[in-house]
Structure formats: C-alpha cells, structure tokens
Amino acid sequence: MRIIVFGATGMVGQGVLEACLRDGAVTEVLVVGRSSTGRTHPKLREIRHADFTDFTPIQDQLTGYDACFFCLGVSALGMSEAAYRAITVDVTLAAARTLLAANPELTFCYVSGAGTDGTGKTRMMWARVKGELENTLLQMSPRAHMFRPAFILPLPGGKAKTKSYVLLYRIVTPLYPVLRRLAPRFVTTSLILGEAMLETARGNAPHRVLETGDINEVAASQTPAS
C-alpha cells in the first residue's frame, strides 16, 4: 500500500506517520509539507511544497497512491471565519481535488473533530465550517472518510504546536490509562488514529464518519503487519 500524508509535522500527523511506517503492508509513505519532518526511513519520501492552494505543479508526483491521510489543520481560536475557512476548507479541497484527479480510486481520510456539525445549524463557527467541508468531501468520493476524534493523546515524544495544548498534554498524558478505561469513546491516541486510517484504507471501516469510539474499535481490529 502506498500512502500520502499531509500534516506529518503536526501532533496528529506525527502519530499517523509513525503508524504508516510501522505497518508491514505499507511500501511507501509520501509526506507533502512546507517543512521537513526531519525523519529518515526506507519507506519515507518527502515533497516540500510552498503553495497549499495549488498542488497542480506536483500532480505528476502524486499518482499511483492508494490513500491520503489528511492531518493538516489549525485551531479556530482567535481566527476570523474567513481566515479559518481559507486554511481548513480551501487547502483541504485543493489537495483532495488534485489527488482524486490523479488517483480516482484513492481513499481520502480527513481528520475533522468531535462536535463537527454538517447541518449548518450550529452557532460554533469551526463546527459549521468543518461540517460544510465534510459534506463536500463525502460528495466528492465514495472512498472519503471523516475522522472525528475528541481528545487525542500525542505519540510519545511528539509535540503540539499550540502552547495551551502543550500544557494540557503534560497534565493529561500520565492519566491516559485511566481515561481510556473510563471514557474509551472519547479518548484516543495519534498512533491509534493512524492505525484506524490504515484499516479504513483496507476497506474495513464500518462507517464513512467515524467518532472516537469507532476509531478505537477499527484500530483494534487492525490486520497484523507482515
């Protein structure tokens, strides 16, 4: 299986990338980003690309892939709707359109978030914008899947880019085993998220929109790596 990962330098993407590199069925992982991951691995290849609103200049390098794991995103805290929409919607759709044109059978996994609302009725700007994006992606391809994790614990050694998240993870990380037992449908890890995406690419996802509980269950059914 050949996988493309966006957002591999972020907290979520670091775990997803690690899951891909560990999986014996994955033969190549292509990371597309503005900056390098700083990692080396026999399976890993990276493309540095500056303009995330236009991927057509590198489209010929994006063919022959089985799945895309799109982990790129920002917090809406302090952002206007226009600015948040430009990053969340415009960038994601630019990537999805280019990739699906190059790989019509591609599985496209998008990391959304718990509370996303596709009805347009919510007052929360971020939930409405992500809901609109989810609806568009689901219409673009029957192999598009939305992942709505609630709380994600980063990969050991992974780092969040938002200062408030860094503090939160320092407090919560030691409590993860307890939280997992008490609230398994609300807590997951970035590595488990990656494992669930790999199972989805194999055609083993029960739904096209997966909440935290679904993510944990799909990852738990993971095909043993060879």
UniProtKB/TrEMBL annotation:
Per the UniProt record, one Pfam family is: Epimerase
- Entries under Gene3D superfamilies matching the protein: NAD(P)-binding Rossmann-like Domain
Which stretches make up the NAD-dependent epimerase/dehydratase domain?
A: 3-103
Q: Which residues cross the membrane?
A: none
Where is it located? Membrane
Q: Return the protein name.
A: NAD-dependent epimerase/dehydratase family protein
Species in which this protein is naturally found = Actinoplanes hulinensis
